[in-house]
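Obj.: predict assembly geometry.
Materials: sequence records (below).
Method: joint structure prediction, all chains together.
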Amino acid sequence: MFCTQGAGSHSLPVSWPETYGKMSRQTTVDNLWTQNIRPDGRSPTEMRQIKCSMGVFDKDKGGGGSAYFQIGNTKAVATVYGPHEGRASQKKVGAANQDKMTVNFEYSSACFSTNDRKTSTKADRKSMEMSCRLKSIMDNVFVHHLSEGSQVDIYIELIQDDGGAYAACINAVTLACIDAGVPLQDFVVACSATMAHGIPMIDISAAEKSTGMPELTLGILSKSKEIVVMEQNNLLKLIYFSDVLNLALDGCQRMLQVLEETCYHKFSLLQRVIEANLRRERT
Amino acid sequence: MNSSISTENKSVAGEGIKEDEGYEWVIDEEEGVPKRKKIEDRTKVRVLNVQANDGTFVMPGQKLAVANEYFEAGEGAYEFANVIYAAIVGKVCIEKFPEQELTVVSVKRKGKAPFISPTIGSIVTCTVVNRTYGLARCLITHVEDVELDDTMRGIIRREYITDKNRDAAEIQSSFGVGDIILARVVGIGEGDFIMSTSEDALGVASATSPAGYQMIPIDWTTMECPVSKARVSRKVAKIVQPQILKSEPS
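Observations (raw structure tokens):
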């Protein structure tokens, strides 16, 4: 970083455009925020590019679905198997489970997903905690009485973690569950938000996270706006909290639009394929 | 004391305003002023207040209709706070049952059967995969007339084969490996369904002879191969098999 010159814009020639002068003389990566620009060039309310698709794997006979969700460089794949008949060991647990859906979650992050390389992440404490958290969220969102006594297995693989991985995982699981036909009360959409220099910012990236910014992950049910997840890392002043929360809510709405669009795209194509097949059969 | 205060409060709150039943005061969002609004009694609505018509494409969480004793959620939909919501992606299907004054609103998805599990009392179709002295292990392939995505395991114990002469019944002389049998689920055991064939209409529906031909029942305990004329004993289900009637020489 080169240090800022003391010279202000008043020392420049009058013909020099005001903002251009500021940018060229004063601005460094460290004080980009004065121009409302974040380290990766986004504005505070700008989200990274979202790519998502449903049904990324071929379906087995036992039903199921899968989804891929990417926001910026954060990539997550979720696969759902089921609903199918429960395993013997789980049926044994008791009659209490008979009128509920059993949900199994397994989260794992690829060993190359973050900057530090790990040998195996399948059973470490962080992954176990993540599976547990995701399970408790989805358990509340499933409509249990529609497929009682059945079992759903959900596997999530985080391919790359570039900030907002928790939110990305939730979105991927929602899409995969919709693809698999698991009865859901509503879309669960999640988004992260942060605050730095008094500016609330949406969709935190890993570069921002590493500077010690607070990270708020918010997950809501899309229609009722009921909060199902709200988690925060690092400290945030309480007076700023409502701003960050509102921004995260806004992000959730935008996320919902993307997810719904993916759904429509996927299912209208499916219907078109079916209609074409029927026409071929008739002729 | 308390009662007098509460009555005072009431009089203050309701100054000059008639307390009518069936109305409530709602703050109007546009003007920011409370306005008198009729409370909608959803339990008495008889006309289907549809937000999504028959055949429309819906997403989870989308409102479908008002729910009360005349309108219910079917498969793929759920009720919450007197409203029917969709639970899966699919098309709305509205079925009317005029006799019971009931309308069922459900969401159906093409090419994806809902999860079905056998319940106690339902008739299932299964294939025998293994038999021991005490029991026959089966794979359930159909529940009633619905084909399952995934097979489930079930067992038939020796005591549950026939209605009469329970102790005389044997697995070896009642079922063969590969037979397709009809059975009724009588219980859920540890990891598999317990089934029974102790009814006339239940038992072996179709069996293949060692020579590879479909066998014909000649009485309710015996089956015969039409080619090799080999006879085996089976607990035959009393069902009319049209293909066998047709193949008989006239």
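Conclusions so far: The longest helix of chain A spans residues 238-282.
To do: check interface contacts against the pulldown list.
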